[in-house]
């Protein structure tokens, strides 16, 4: 990072600045350690959040979608479709032919299962 911040490197014709970087860490302790090391090099740094990325709404929705794909029963499909990421409304679920939906997903779930085994 020090080399990239020397003023000789650019993004979109402007010098790279510390806020152009983001570092994901496994634990808050790791984040604090990296922050201290960057500050020793003269690079300003902040720890943005103490919460786990897996506790955020987007991670929960992605989990619902993956469950709908991997375990495509009516309940899991509904949960996946009702996420903000997919965008179905509850009244739209009445028009779904779940048998066709499951058949459409089967080739993909079969491939995923084969990859894991």
Spell out the key features of this protein.
elongated; 4 helices; mainly alpha; disordered C terminus; 117 residues; two-stranded antiparallel ribbon
Can you describe this structure?
The structure is a single chain. The chain folds into 2 domains: 49 residues, no CATH class; 64 residues, no CATH class. 46% of the residues lie in helices and 3% in strands. It contains 4 helices and 2 strands, in the order E-E-H-H-H-H. Strands 1-2 form a two-stranded antiparallel sheet. A hairpin with a 2-residue loop joins strand 1 and strand 2. Helix 2 packs antiparallel against helix 3. The longest helix is centred in the C-terminal third of the chain and has 19 residues. The radius of gyration is 22 Å and the shape is elongated. 5% of the residues are buried.
Beta-sheet strand percentage? under 5%
Mean pLDDT: 81
Proportion of helical residues = 40-55%
N-to-C span: 40 Å
């Amino acid at each position: 990072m020090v080399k990239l911040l020397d003023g000789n490197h650019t993004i979109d014709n402007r010098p790279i600045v510390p806020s152009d970087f983001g570092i994901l860490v496994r634990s808050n302790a790791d984040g604090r350690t990296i922050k201290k090391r960057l500050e020793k090099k003269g690079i300003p740094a902040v720890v943005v959040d103490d919460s786990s990325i897996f506790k955020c709404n987007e991670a929960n929705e992605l989990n619902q979608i993956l469950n709908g794909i991997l375990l495509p029963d009516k309940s899991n499909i509904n949960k996946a479709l009702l996420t903000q990421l997919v965008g179905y409304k509850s009244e739209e679920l009445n028009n779904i032919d779940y048998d066709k939906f499951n058949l459409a997903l089967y080739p993909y779930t079969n491939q995923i299962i084969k990859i894991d085994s």
